[in-house]
Every structure is written in structure tokens, then in C-alpha cells.
Specification:
By secondary structure, the chain is an all-alpha fold. The chain has four helices and no strands.
């Protein structure tokens, strides 16, 4: 009985983790694509920039940054406040560019 409950809990935990990871990466797909197109860098470099930048900016700024990249991908126009966030996160990203072999 214990093994069956343990297996069920393990399967449930794995499915939750996979779902959580998939959701966050899908939100950042537009960021990866945008960075690759804008900076002419590889997908690996774009993902590295994301990984290294997220911890050094606020969650609010990061969420807005990903939201704006998604707006751009959908050909919507971000407002001035959104662009300020893009610039702020962009400066943070520039500060760690060397870690990802990206020159700005």
C-alpha cells in the first residue's frame, strides 16, 4: 500500500514540476526569439542571458519584460512605461553579457 501511494505521489509531483517548467518557458519563448533576432545571438546565448538576468532584476520588472516581448511578437505597441522597464532590464542584461559570450 505504501509503495502505491509513494508512486502516485511521485507521479503527481513530476507532472506538477513539468507543468510549472513548461509554463514559465512558454512565457519566455518570445524573449528568446526577440533576443535572437534583435541581438543576432544563438538560442543558447539568449537562454543564458535570461538565466543570468532573472535573479538580478525584480520579479515585477521581469514579468513586464516578458510581457512586452510577447506584445512585440504579437505586433502590439508597448507604452512608454513598458519601454522604461525594457531599458532597465536591458542594462542589467548588458552587465552580465560576458558570462554568456554576448557583446552588446
Amino acid at each position: 500500500m505504501f509503495l502505491k501511494v509513494n508512486k502516485i505521489c511521485s507521479i503527481l509531483l513530476i507532472s506538477v514540476l513539468i507543468s510549472a517548467c513548461s509554463e514559465s518557458s512558454s512565457k519566455e519563448d518570445a524573449v528568446v526569439k526577440g533576443l535572437m533576432d534583435d541581438k543576432k545571438i544563438t538560442e543558447k546565448q539568449a537562454k543564458c542571458l535570461i538565466k543570468e538576468t532573472k535573479p538580478i532584476v525584480t520579479k515585477e520588472d521581469w514579468d513586464k519584460y516578458t510581457e512586452v516581448w510577447n506584445m512585440i511578437e504579437e505586433q502590439a505597441d508597448p507604452n512608454e512605461k513598458d519601454l522604461e522597464t525594457m531599458i532597465s532590464v536591458g542594462f542589467a542584461m548588458m552587465s552580465i553579457g560576458n558570462k554568456c559570450n554576448v557583446i552588446f
